[in-house]
Fold this protein.
Amino acid sequence: MPFSFVGRRGVSLVETLVCLAIISIMVSLLFPAIQSVRAGMARAECADHKRQLSLALDAFCDSSGGLLPPPPAPPNPGGWAREILPFMEERAVFQALDVRLPMTAPANAAAARKLPPMMRCTFAPWRDSDVPGVAPSDFLLVVSPGNPGSVPRRPGPRRTREFSVFFYHAPKDATAPWPESVEIDIATFGSRRAVEWPVWHPVAPATGLGSLTDEGL
């Protein structure tokens, strides 16, 4: 008895195009959600790094009897970025950075290349500093007298009761190597921010990043 086979109809071109269109629509709908999740994770990590720097600085001030780190003294390493290292589990780097020698000295080269992870922000693109091979910090310290318009009454070490300080995102044109501790006074910060502060991430309220910029200690 002869058998007859009924051939299976193939997928038409129209059906293929319809499937591709549906897939592309689904991808276009999922992509913003994925980007939003990634941005949220990066935002949380950046805020956490800033918080950890604040805690390390606070711990340094407690251990020093209420003194702030000494001001930066470029081209030598020093200032807040070096002084808070022991409170960030980076004591080996702290001990390897010799404040008596410039950043370019061979004795400082190896330690200077070890940028502490807490000084990085995911939003910031990797960039080089003025010293090849040494990255800049993605944060800087803003220092303000304790009372607006006032100045400390005595020279010498800076005391926490005479100043208020907070971390802020370094602008993308800040190219000093991280061990030099970028620090600016509140007047410079205010005047420059009012005119131009070339950031490397959006700070518009709609992005949810506004809270990352003005967190005082």
Summary: Strands lie at 139-145, 163-169, 183-185. Residues 49-212 form one domain. The radius of gyration is 26 Å. The chain has a mean pLDDT of 80.
